[in-house]
Design a protein that fits this description.
Layout lengths: L1 E3 L5 H16 L11 E3 L10 H9 L14 H5 L4 E3 L2 H11 L6 E3 H13 L11 H13 L20 H22 L2
């Protein structure tokens, strides 16, 4: 599950990008993956912003039918992994989920850990579920303080109210990490 604030820009764009990666790179895995998105302050039923729809359509991804939903405990509990755009959102999701919730990471932070996992010599081994290995790698990266940037630098900027160019920038920021995460999960 991808999480942002209003579930009208970043998280539906990330959800669309993730679906596109699976369709393009792993079509045989379509049944294995279910993507969703929600917002910590979403008003249920809001449509995505015009700019978000436009930028995704430029990539051949249609998010026009998406409708915003708020983060609730049952959504979090039904997820295997939660990827947030900001640290404050991650903390809110963890508070909603409690101790039994799924792992929650900043999207860009887990994307970097996935890149490290894929670059490692043992990152090429096959398997049906790369989530445990990805979570181990993420924990090692955090523990070893190997992260290249401060925590705040792992946040995806909110483009709401900005020109379409900012939405393109946000989509470009998310694209590589999402692809790395999905490649890691398919190892």
């Amino acid at each position: 599950m991808f999480v942002c604030t209003g579930n009208m820009c970043r998280s539906p764009m990330a959800e669309g990008l993730a679906r596109a990666v699976i369709d393009r790179r792993y079509p045989e895995q379509r049944e294995r993956f279910y993507f969703s998105s929600a917002g910590v302050a979403a008003l249920d039923g809001n449509a995505p912003t015009r700019e978000a729809v436009e930028v995704m359509m430029e990539r051949g991804i249609d998010i026009g039918n998406h409708r915003a939903v708020g983060v609730i405990r049952s959504f979090v509990e039904a997820s295997d992994l939660v990827l947030t755009m900001e640290e404050a959102q991650r903390k809110l999701v963890m508070g909603i989920a409690g101790v039994v919730g799924p792992p929650a990471f900043l999207l860009l932070e887990l994307g970097e850990a996935a890149g490290k996992m894929l670059a490692a010599p043992d990152g090429a081994r096959g398997g049906t579920d790369g989530l445990p290995e990805l979570l181990r790698t993420a924990a090692e990266v955090e523990l070893d303080k190997q992260l290249k940037r401060k925590k705040s630098r792992y946040e995806v900027p909110d483009p709401i109210g900005m020109p379409v160019e900012e939405y393109r920038h946000v989509a470009a920021i998310m694209e590589g990490p999402i692809e790395n995460i999905l490649r890691a999960l398919n190892r």
